[in-house]
Amino acid sequence: MKDISLHLMDIAQNSVSAGATLIQISFDCRDGFLIFRLTDNGRGMDEELLKTVTDPFTTTRTTREVGMGIPLLKLSAEITGGSFEIKSQKGEGTTTEARFVIDSIDRIPIGNVDETLKTLIMANPDINFEITFQSEKSSFKLKTEEIKKYLNGVPIDSFEVIEWIAENIRDGMKVVFGGVLNEISG
Amino acid sequence: MKSLAELEAIREKALKEMSLRDNTGKIRVVVGMATCGIAAGARPVMNAFVEELNKRNVQNVNVTMTGCIGACRLEPIAEVITPDGKKTTYVKLDPEKARRIVVEHLINGHPVKEYTIGEAE
What we know:
- The complex is a heterodimer.
- By secondary structure, chain A is α+β, with helices and mostly antiparallel strands.
- Helices cover 37% and strands 24% of the residues of chain A.
- Chain B is of the alpha+beta class.
- Chain B is globular, with a radius of gyration of 16 Å.
- The chains are: A alpha+beta, B alpha+beta.
- The interface between A and B is medium-sized, with 36 and 30 residues.
């Protein structure tokens, strides 16, 4: 995975498969860390699965016995000197958190979070997404549930609406992370 | 910053156009979006499908995503499912190929044979 937005795509896909109706995504820059957190209200995992979930030879897939998504994210975070944590409650949902050391030479860029969100919302119009960006500079929040209310029946996956959301997210990233993450100009 | 006024303009325009849409007989495009697909470049492929369809104002196609389709070495993969249930599996896609599939298959009804799984295997 070349950047964090691709990891986001991958982890969010697990939430979709788990039947989530709400997916909360946050990126938080503080104390030298970039913290990526994804919380869903999907079916969750039991303790047994949770224990083995960072093992690449664990997967829910039936066609093959390897699952690389979570182990790759764990590696991307730990290689910077950061950490990875996954918590889950059967029937309640799952929270995945990866902490990256911002200034580590091995940290992958945050990537096109707007493009990932665009794709996720478009493909899953019935799932509500909440996205939060936070830094010492500023913060940004977008909830698709509120946008849906405002749209008054116009589908959220209409092309122009999706483009509007993506641009909003792009602007939000600039305001919050510009100059904080060196891949985003201030 | 994008403003709510812009969103309102989009909403009003969409409400007017919605009555013109026909939702029956939709073609489905399903893009594999598991770890294997994403790492191989499925996200830009999916975006290319959507952007090209919008550019050409095609309304009878739904683009969606799924997990691992099972042939990771051939990713990015997309399946085109027509209303009669016929399925075409395209493999090793990129945005350029996706745009060609929109024009030749989704609009004109001729599958792009050279990108199909049968040709790649």
